[in-house]
């Protein structure tokens, strides 16, 4: 079971950045709720939000919650301000190896979903990524005070894309499997399929038990390596 703690930045009396008729606290809550709804479509996931209403919370209350729950990953969602444009993500200055790995996977997945400028993977001494005991990331999704970014943030479809990017990254990083996805091991094979399976076992391509999950790129590589090694051996003999 993977436990994901999603933190919509700001809330209640702390509205965050405000411009162009938008308030940061409302946007972060909308994004976080969509992340939760999408993530719950995957197997073995638990999701907790630091707040799912317009509520005032200190930064300490947020990381205390995540730490007490024993989350496996923390995502703090924010909207930028200060006259720039685009998307950037943060991990702590002295981030763990896991935090670095997850940022490397999740950041580009978010960028892929958006037509925001990629401002890059960054590091900072932010409370949310420093005081959390688990790997953590803080995302800054566009600039509320830049008209072009604000116009995008006003569209619900764009909020959905931002959430989808976060989820795609998490799915990749944690190898999550969609609920109701087919599991090969449980499928009854036809006689012809069983013959292919037995042949694959004989050739050492698979142990016959895997893949339990939908085949991912690593599984495909794992199948290709023994084949390539055999070809290499044969070529040496020629
Ligand atoms: Zn913020």
Automatic annotation (TrEMBL):
Position of the signal peptide: none
SUPFAM superfamilies xrefs: Zn-dependent exopeptidases
EC number(s) on file: 3.5.1.28
Pfam families: Amidase_3 (PF01520)
GO molecular function: N-acetylmuramoyl-L-alanine amidase activity
UniProt KW keywords: Hydrolase
Domain MurNAc-LAA: 63-171
PANTHER family (alphabetical): N-ACETYLMURAMOYL-L-ALANINE AMIDASE, N-ACETYLMURAMOYL-L-ALANINE AMIDASE AMIC
Protein name (record): N-acetylmuramoyl-L-alanine amidase
Organism annotation: Cytobacillus eiseniae
